[in-house]
Write a structure and sequence with these properties.
Length: 794
């Protein structure tokens, strides 16, 4: 409708349409909000007005009900009435009828004072009588006179009056002087008297019609239904018969809602119920008003709001169509022009402005790619050229043309090489991985390259390239002395090492070549840097290794190219390991390493040979241990091989020393535990043998009266106290107890043979005194030898 150009669901046309509709819907939404707020305000005002009117009803009716309570109070505390429930008439029975008459006269006086009370009386449950103003009647006659109706029987009336602790307002029906039934609100109050005495009840009534006349002029009375409920939710007063019908369906079985206002629906019609509690009693005042009455005043506002919304929508739609057509035509023509003259296709989900931006961006991106590719190729080609210079392949490249192409101009003909080996970069890699999906290795090389070249440019020129995963910096010196140049090279290396570790947590080991002249000397400088880097095994990682200093040390060192590790020291180390003495074994290992590497210089091949010899010593020691192969330490056959691989791949002597010391500790710990275990087992076997000898000695000499701890100690050349403790710790029983039990076991066998008497048996088992034998026998067996013999005879 707005042109032949195809419009997708993300078209700018749709965006504009939604924008215009949002502007259009804003006043509509504001109108709805104003209408809702106005309606809420009107409803709240009506609710407040209803609550205020209901409070007026409560004020009027509370005064009426307060009159009933006040009359009840005066009746209850009337002295003559109180005497009816006392013991007076047991002494003066003739005064009973006289007092009844006097009470009726008092009631007549109360009737005159309380003109708003339609009827009141006192019911006496004992004599079953009713006291009225100026007269008293029997209860059946009084019922016939005041309450006889089809809906309220005599039994119901009596049960109502005789309820225990009954006090409060209840609905009731009475018959007036003309015989007409009247709905009334009755206040029932039971007299509190002691057990066994006459009981009574006050009944005070006001007709419902009198109550309704007091509030019929209020606006709330005419609009809805007014109800007064007692504590049990029984209807006391209602403004209409419909009120009684509605009340039956309101769920008063549960507590009333916490709010003073709530909605209720009956037969498809909604009602709005307002209720309040009496300030003086437990009565509830309710107003039930149909919800339609609330909306009579809001109907005009609603119609006006609907009309304004419809007019706004119709006018807004026409204006939206007009401005959309006018504003979209230039955009449509511009998109068509780009589509015909560009290879860029509009992507699904993009609007026309995105297509135009995409076409422009595509041109800029292509231009940027061309420039980036040119820079990238330039950097790769320059790095390749520097690499060929370092490797001495000058005959394969046109040097002068390449220098001009890559904008490289050498200041002098003096060169040196700095080799950079990354020793530590784990912290750097972790930080980069937290930032995003960047290649940490390439970023690290970029940082190192820029730092080295910037530091070199402070005094000289530096060109960094990568050869076999190692960064190499070619230094072209400015004019100066070689001594100053070497100091500056060391300063560059030290500053680069410190800066990269502090800022980026990149640990470097750097090697510096000597100074060489002409282009042909560049390859020699590169080889010198490689040679110096090899010495990080001896001198440690994160160091600055100078080729000149290393070879000066070689020249200063004597012709002895061996190392200190004699056979007797090796055997001493093996012996310490066998006995598990880790302290001495470690001390010996440290002395070997310190004695070899504390001298001025030690070549890399000799250092490797020494460390491999130490590894060989560890392997020979493990082989001589025998059952060490079955220990938990190296239960996996591959564990020794992995350890050897870790040792041989160490890059410094210190790392090798740490690995060997760690494994040495594990081996010593195992051998020490094994040796201690063997000592304990040997000691236990010796103790078992000695205890067995003591027991055998007791068995052989139990009949000797002189057999005791001292005699046994003397025989085995041991102190009696130590012998006794040793025996008890090993067997769990005392040595003297063992002697006595052995003698008693022999005695029991002799008693069982029935050939000897008790005295003979005592002498045969080593007791000189038969009484001592009897006491000992009873102590251990619980019975005397004579009883034991009787048991065996039976």
């Amino acid at each position: 409708m707005l042109g032949k150009f195809k419009i997708n669901r993300r078209s700018v046309l749709l965006t504009w349409l939604l924008s215009y509709l949002a502007v259009l819907l804003l006043p509509v939404a504001m109108s709805v909000i104003v209408y809702i707020k106005s309606s809420d305000t009107l409803v709240n005002e009506i609710h407040q007005a209803n609550e205020s009117l209901l409070k007026q009803v409560r004020e009027v009716m509370d005064n009426q009900f307060a009159t009933m309570e006040r009359l009840n109070f005066e009746l209850t505390w009337n002295m003559r009435v109180r005497q009816l429930f006392s013991n007076k008439y047991q002494i003066y029975p003739n005064e009973y009828l006289y007092d009844l008459h006097q009470i009726t006269q008092d009631l007549l006086m109360y009737k005159t004072s309380y003109s708003l009370i339609d009827l009141f009386y006192i019911y006496l449950s004992g004599p079953n009588k009713v006291l009225l103003p100026d007269l008293y009647r029997d209860a059946p006659f009084a019922y016939e006179l005041m309450h006889k109706t089809n809906s309220f029987s005599y039994d119901q009336w009596i049960n109502t009056l005789n309820q225990k602790e009954k006090k409060g307002f209840i609905p009731m029906v009475r018959v007036d002087e003309n015989g007409k039934q009247r709905k009334t609100v009755a206040y029932i109050s039971r007299y509190r008297i002691e057990s066994g005495e006459t009981e009574g009840t006050n009944v005070i009534m006001i007709d419902q019609s009198r109550i309704l006349r007091a509030i019929e002029n209020m606006e709330l009375f005419n609009k809805g239904h007014v109800l007064i409920l007692n504590e049990a939710n029984e209807l006391l007063v209602s403004s209409s018969n419909d009120s009684e019908r509605l009340l039956h369906d309101i769920p008063f079985g549960q507590e009333m809602p916490g709010s003073k206002f709530f909605f209720w629906e009956k037969d498809g019609q909604k009602y709005e119920i307002t209720y309040i509690q009496s300030d003086r009693s437990k009565l509830k005042y309710l107003s039930i008003i149909p919800s339609l009455l609330f909306w009579e005043k809001a109907e005009q506002i609603r119609k006006l709001t609907y009309m304004s919304i419809i007019i706004s929508l119709l006018g807004g739609c026409l204006l939206t169509y007009f401005f959309l057509r006018k504003n979209y035509n230039p955009v449509r023509r511009l998109v068509r022009a780009f589509s015909e003259k560009s290879d860029v296709l509009q992507k699904p989900g993009h609007d026309e402005f995105s297509f135009i931006q995409q076409a422009v961006d595509n041109t800029l991106v292509e231009l940027a790619k061309i420039m980036s590719e040119r820079k990238k190729q330039h950097h790769i080609l320059r790095s390749n050229f520097v690499g060929r210079l370092l490797k001495g392949k000058l005959d394969q490249i046109p040097v002068d043309e390449s220098l001009a192409t890559f904008n490289m101009r050498f200041i002098t003909d003096d060169f040196a090489v700095i080799l950079l080996y990354v020793q530590e970069s784990s912290s750097f890699h972790e930080r980069i991985q937290q930032i995003g999906p960047t290649d940490p290795q390439k970023l690290m090389q970029f940082i190192i390259t820029n730092v080295i070249e910037e530091l070199a440019l402070q005094h000289h020129q530096g060109f960094v390239t990568e050869i076999e995963e190692t960064l190499v910096c070619l230094i072209n010196f400015s004019p100066g002395t070689n001594e100053d140049r070497m100091q500056q090279l060391v300063a560059i290396a030290r500053e680069a090492q410190s800066f990269l570790m502090t800022k980026y947590h990149i640990g470097l080991t750097l090697s510096i070549s000597g100074i060489h002249s002409e282009l042909a000397g560049i390859s020699q400088a590169y080889l010198e840097a490689l040679d110096a880097m090899e010495y990080k095994l001896v001198m440690g990682s994160k160091e600055i290794l100078s080729y000149d200093e290393i070879h000066q040390s070689v020249a200063a060192e004597d012709s002895d190219t061996g190392y200190y590790y004699p056979l007797q020291v090796e055997q001493q180390l093996i012996n310490y390991v066998k006995i598990g003495d880790f302290t001495m074994a470690r001390q010996t290992l440290d002395e070997i390493i310190e004695r070899n590497f504390n001298r001025t210089f030690m070549s890399v091949p000799i250092a490797r040979c020494l460390m491999l010899n130490l590894v060989s010593t560890m392997i020979k020691t493990i082989s001589e241990l025998g059952d060490f192969q079955d220990s938990v330490l190296i239960r996996n056959p591959r564990r020794i091989e992995k350890w050897i691989e870790q040792i041989t791949t160490c890059q410094t002597i210190k790392e090798m020393q740490v690995q060997i010391t760690e494994f040495l500790g594990k081996v010593c710990e195992y051998t020490a535990n094994k040796r201690q275990q063997n000592i304990q087992q040997s000691r236990q076997r010796t103790l078992d043998e000695r205890i067995h000898q003591i027991i055998e000695y007791i068995n052989q000499n139990f009949n000797d009266p002189n057999l005791n701890i001292s005699m046994i100690g003397s025989h085995f050349d041991m102190k009696p106290a130590y012998l006794s403790k040793l025996f008890k710790d090993h067997t769990g029983e005392g040595l003297l107890d063992s002697i006595n039990k052995t003698r008693l076991e022999k005695a029991k066998h002799l008693i069982a043979d029935r050939k000897k008497n008790i005295s003979d048996v005592a002498i045969d088992v080593g007791f000189n005194d038969v009484n001592a034998f009897i006491r000992t026998f009873k102590k251990y067996e619980g019975i005397t030898p004579g009883k034991y013999k009787e048991m065996k005879d039976q």
